[in-house]
Amino acid sequence: MSKFFFIIYMFFAGLSIHAQNFENKFQVSFQDSFQKDTVSLRIGKCEVINNKVLISREIGFTGVRVELHELNKIIVFENGNTILEKKCSFNLSKDLKFYFILNKKKSSLDINLNNGKYIGLSKNKKEGEAFILQQLKRPFEYD
Can you tell me whether residue 94 is helix, strand or coil? Predict the structure, then answer.
């Protein structure tokens, strides 16, 4: 009988460890004002998105998001489906440098995760800055 309880305990402990490894360290969501815009994103030395055409929906979200998980695993999702997984190394105690190309125009942002690990990027309709940055400590909600 004690073997049975031990096996059950090990099963749930394994599930708990797997769930902890899947918690994201940061999340980047491409949000509003994209209208067939071509976007590339590099975080530090890690190329994450290359020439992706983005279209924002009425809810203010393109369906494209980037997450960093345990073990330095970057996952790019589009409409809930994984389109890229790769290993990238980041020093999360320092500002992260985001390098963008939006419709062939280069820009960059320094991201401090102390301001929130949920990063929303919208296309800026005005000249000057390419993106409007929104950073939260809780996930974005879309209707």
Answer: coil
What does the pLDDT look like over 70-121, one tens digit per residue? 889 999 999 999 999 999 999 999 999 999 999 999 999 999 999 999 999 9
Encode burial over 98-120: b for 16+ CB neighbours within 10 A, e otherwise.
bbbbbeeeeeebebebeebbbbb
Distance CA 65, CA 74 (A): 11
Collapsing DSSP states into helix, strand and coil, what is residue 6?
Answer: helix
Task: Tell me the whole-structure pTM to 2 decimals.
Answer: 0.81
- DSSP structural state of residue 18: H
Tell how strand 35-43 and strand 24-30 pair up: unpaired
